[in-house]
Write a structure and sequence with these properties.
This protein has helices spanning 2-16, 19-60, 66-72, 81-96, 103-125, 129-157, 166-230. The chain is mainly α. Helix 2 packs antiparallel against helix 6 and helix 5 (103-125) packs antiparallel against helix 7.
Length: 231
């Protein structure tokens, strides 16, 4: 039964808190809920993106014909490294089919298309991370504001009593400290998730950039090899 009593006492402290402190608690609760939704969403997306990158790179380096690999992706939405491949190869193929296209111009257009695709993939990897960073940095201060306000009201209430005792001050201070606890409860998971997802995003972006450079080298050999053969 003690756990039930503790739980009821916490709920009673929240219910008896001032309106401003309750508003602070509500903001922190909403921030925590939204953070956890984004944490699960980011975790699922990054695991899916990493698995897709591994599978596509395995297929790409298996020696498959690039035209056949490109046609396999028709009809579905490309993600991650496959999107970079399709953007560069589409532009490369389009310009090579034009008569009189300079090899350097073909390579520049292909690399530009891959850079645009890289920027879009970076945006996808970093989605919601600024919000998690904001929750991690701001929540403790919001909770501290609620605590300071609650303690200030408690001491103001002492002016109306003839004898100040711990029993008079303790409830107000306790309800104020709940706001600090909720601020930490919202901030700690957010900062841990932000650090983890930011590190994963940097690793994956590094892999994307490495693939783009290696793919550019393959296209460069193809376009200049054809020019040398024609000469």
């Amino acid at each position: 039964m003690p756990p039930t009593q503790n739980t009821m006492s916490i709920w009673s402290l929240i219910a008896e808190a001032s309106l401003l402190v309750q508003a602070v608690m509500l903001i922190l609760l909403l921030a925590s809920i939204i953070s956890w939704v984004m944490i699960f969403q980011r975790g699922f997306y990054q695991r899916k993106a990493y698995a897709a990158m591994t599978a596509f790179e395995r297929q790409f380096w298996s020696g498959i014909d690039l035209n056949h690999l490109y046609r396999q992706g028709n009809g579905r939405v490309a993600e991650g490294v496959e999107n970079i491949f399709r953007a560069g190869f589409k532009e490369f193929t389009r310009l090579r089919q034009q008569s009189g296209a300079e090899p350097d111009a073909v390579m520049e257009a292909s690399q530009r298309a891959m850079r645009v695709a890289l920027a879009r993939e970076e945006e996808k990897l970093e989605t919601h991370l600024p919000f998690l960073a904001s929750v991690a940095s701001v929540s403790p201060y919001i909770g501290l504001f609620g605590t300071v306000w609650g303690i200030m009201n408690s001491f103001r209430g002492l002016a109306n009593v003839h004898q100040a005792t711990l029993a008079v001050v303790a409830p107000g201070i306790a309800e104020a400290l709940v706001a600090t606890a909720m601020g930490l409860f919202a901030a700690i998971p957010a900062v841990l998730a932000y650090n983890r997802f930011s590190a994963r995003a940097e690793v994956m972006m590094s892999n994307y950039q490495t693939f783009a450079e290696e793919f550019s080298a393959i296209l460069h050999r193809q376009v200049h090899g054809k020019q040398q053969a024609a000469a």
